[in-house]
Amino acid sequence: DRLRPLLFALGLAIATGCGGNAMPGGTAQSSLLVTAPSPAGSHLKKPALITLDLQGGELEYWQVHTGGSSTTPMPFTASLGLHSAYGMVGDGATIAIANNSPAEVVAYNVRTKKSAALPDPYGNPIDIAIDKRETLYVLNLNNVAVYRAGASKPTELTCQYVNSAVAIAANDEGDVFVNGYGPGSFMGVVEFRRGRHACTKLNLQPEEGYIAGVGVDPKTDDLIVVDNPDLCAGGYEGRMRIYSKPYGPKYTEHNLNANYCAGTFRLDASSTRIFVSDSTISDGYPVIDQRSYPDAADEGTYSGGYGSHGSFGGFTTIPNTLPN
Prior knowledge:
By secondary structure, the protein is mainly beta. The protein has 1 helix and 26 strands. β8 (104-109) and β9 (114-119) form a beta hairpin.
């Protein structure tokens, strides 16, 4: 069961008989530490694309299939009280959520229906990644909070090259990658080698337009970088470049063909599908594009339209594979 190591990475002591509510000695209680029961008739059907209703605060999902879905996603929890969560990763049955305000990291187990959280002391989270050792990397605007398994408090990573971060990822070896903007018109990816606090710029092809994000294929350890060369104006949006190790300037390129503006993306557990945040040009409401990976063939979109489930935050999949 991978719930225990992930919650320990959040500094939580989860043990039989403690109800999932015990904290290590001296650690302040989170603003969120609850059981969130599922609504009636809300059995999670897998494979699932999971997101958060930013209005109601419930976790919700679409069952994944070719063609996507234009139906409202199905809530499967009561409200978690989260309304500004834009980053999410999966680890077995556990979902880790980066909540921007209040600044905290939330763990929710879809099997036990237990949730717990710790504050992020270094900023307001905008993205999150998890490596094979179940270390969590929580991205703030200009730093990274690192929650290692067994630690009760995070440590901090900073990089002089990035002061406006966008996305974060980790590879099989535990190296960390941040995609963002920085001094001197820098726009690109920096790397923190495992166990080091110093960052280096990767020698990749220049990104253009707007940054969309960075990720790692857990099957191949390839680095995935996505940008929007036509500035989210409806042209070439969602350019995906894939770099094999040692992550130099050579790459393969595919067009994710975003409707308007590609953003956060996640792979499924088999690395055969990629899910990309997007929006429509005419209406502006959010959608999640499904493409085959790595060739980026169109497999549909997921959306909820307007209404109580029209605005959703970060997303991930169950099942999943580390790192993600």
